[in-house]
Design goal:
- Strands 3-2-1-4-6-5 form a six-stranded antiparallel sheet, sandwiched between helices.
- Helix 5 (110-117) packs across helix 6.
- It has helices at residues 3-9, 23-34, 84-90, 96-99, 110-117, 121-142, 155-162; strands at 55-61, 64-69, 74-79, 102-108, 146-147, 169-177.
- The protein has one domain: NADH Oxidase, CATH 3.40.109.10.
- The protein starts with a helix and ends with a strand.
- The chain is built from seven helices and six strands; from the N terminus they run H-H-E-E-E-H-H-E-H-H-E-H-E.
């Protein structure tokens, strides 16, 4: 599918089938988010100011919570609990979040970018999160999946639910799965 076709087909999906995603699909989505595209300099699939990469990608599934490590291209399990129902509570009762087989969470460490760019760091981090999210949404379409960017949530509840490190702030939840319609 061409990039133009994925752009034309991309829509926000709130109604998901319960089918699990394959490891290949998860791998493609994670590559779209932060995959290594240059083995020498460790550049990633989304641009980052100063190549600082302050974003951490997490996946919430029925079998637990995972953190993606781009430099090793692997997932590390953080919890074996299904965090999706708690994400719904933190996301103002948006129930479709628990129905998606995968919820990608994008969290930022602003300090990493602030040390180099000062007050412009916020602009750069928010731009990067947008690049990552769009890559994920377009990759989802290319895989026959649906997704939805969710920015409406209580930061402290999401941070607590996921037990994020103090220096990471959640910025986006992206439910992903097979659309019902």
């Amino acid at each position: 599918m061409s990039v133009e076709e994925t752009i034309l087909r991309r829509r926000s999906v709130r109604d998901f089938h319960q089918y699990d995603l394959s490891n290949e699909q998860l791998s493609q989505l994670l590559f779209a988010a932060q995959g290594i595209t240059d083995s020498t300099y460790k550049f990633r699939s989304a641009p980052s100011a100063g190549a600082l990469y302050p974003i951490t990608v997490y996946l919430a599934r029925k079998d637990g919570l995972f953190r993606y490590v781009p430099t090793e291209n692997k997932l590390i399990q953080i919890s074996d609990q299904d965090k999706r129902p708690s994400l719904v509570r933190g996301a103002l009762a948006q129930s479709f979040i628990k129905d998606a087989p995968v919820v990608m969470i994008l969290a930022a460490n602003f300090k990493v970018t602030q040390e180099k760019f000062g007050p412009r760091a916020f602009r750069y981090v928010f731009s990067e999160i947008g690049h990552i999210a769009e890559n994920v949404h377009l990759q989802a379409v290319a895989l026959g999946l649906g997704s939805l960017p969710v920015g409406s949530f209580w930061d402290d509840v999401i941070k607590s639910t996921l037990n994020l490190p103090e220096d990471q702030d959640p910025l986006y939840l992206i439910p992903i799965g097979y659309p019902r319609t």
